[in-house]
Write a structure and sequence with these properties.
This protein is an alpha/beta fold and 210 residues long. The protein has two domains: 3-136, Rossmann fold, CATH 3.40.50.2300; 143-203, Winged helix-like DNA-binding domain superfamily/Winged helix DNA-binding domain (Arc Repressor Mutant, subunit A, Orthogonal Bundle), CATH 1.10.10. The protein has helices spanning 12-22, 37-47, 63-73, 88-97, 109-120, 128-136, 149-159, 164-171, 175-189, 194-203; strands at residues 3-8, 28-34, 51-54, 78-83, 101-104, 125-126. Helix 1 (12-22) links the parallel strand 1 and strand 2 (28-34). Helix 3 (63-73) packs parallel to helix 4 (88-97), helix 7 crosses helix 10 and helix 8 packs across helix 9 (175-189). The longest helix is centred in the C-terminal third of the chain and has 15 residues, at 175-189. The protein starts with a strand and ends in a 7-residue tail after the last helix.
Length: 210
């Protein structure tokens, strides 16, 4: 039986490379490529993959929140996070969102293949450096976890330079509702100015400077 895989990475060339490497395996088929988190959630609903190989930092919706959203509608799907970021805070956030696997982008293709097979079988798979980072750090409260999923969406879009009107249109909300969510978010994180919110989003891995 083929393992149906969706690859979600905003670097198209990298995603295409992963596709070629995975499809060399006789038990794997790449059914789709997504270039942002929101598109990944949509494609999971349409293509019904068994495993999603997900970049953590993507436009529109980051990998952790995309994982949480896609598992809400397709809980049988398994997610492997593949990221350049291996700090304990981001790893824990992805695992709390429901990812079963987490690898550094510096990992070899053999490890990626092993991770896909492991999570498909329902097993957790952490790259060696990831496991060490998580085990070696004390559990600490993640300030991003204070925010609801919708507040995190709005924080990411604000940090990516979207206006209130653009966010309302993209999320199919009224501008008043967007402002309400933003006010709640500001109250929770204690940062009122936009540059401060952008710095907060970068510091905690919601967006990157790439």
């Amino acid at each position: 039986m083929l393992i149906r895989i969706l690859i979600a990475d905003d670097h198209r060339m990298l995603a295409e490379t992963f596709k070629v490497l995975l499809e060399q395996q006789p038990d794997m088929q790449v059914v789709g490529l997504a270039t942002d988190g929101r598109d990944a959630v949509r494609q999971v609903g349409e293509l019904l993959p068994d495993v999603v190989v997900m970049d953590l930092t993507m436009p529109e919706l980051n990998g952790a929140d995309a994982t949480r959203a896609l598992l809400a509608t397709r809980p049988a799907c398994r997610v492997v996070i593949l990221s350049a970021h291996t700090d304990a805070e981001r790893v824990r956030r992805a695992l709390r969102a429901g990812a079963l696997g987490y690898l550094s982008k510096s990992a070899g293709v053999e490890e990626l293949i092993a991770a896909v097979r492991a999570v498909y079988a329902g097993q957790r798979y952490l790259g060696e450096s990831i496991a060490e980072a998580v085990a070696g750090a004390e559990a600490a409260a993640d300030p991003i976890e204070r925010l609801s999923a919708r507040e995190r969406e709005i924080l990411q879009l604000l940090a990516e330079g979207r206006t209130g009107a653009e966010i309302a249109q993209r999320l199919q909300l009224s501008q008043k509702t967007v402002e309400t969510y933003r006010a709640r978010m500001v109250e929770k994180v204690g940062i009122r100015d936009l540059p401060g919110l952008v710095r907060f989003a970068i510091q905690h891995g919601i967006v990157t400077l790439d």
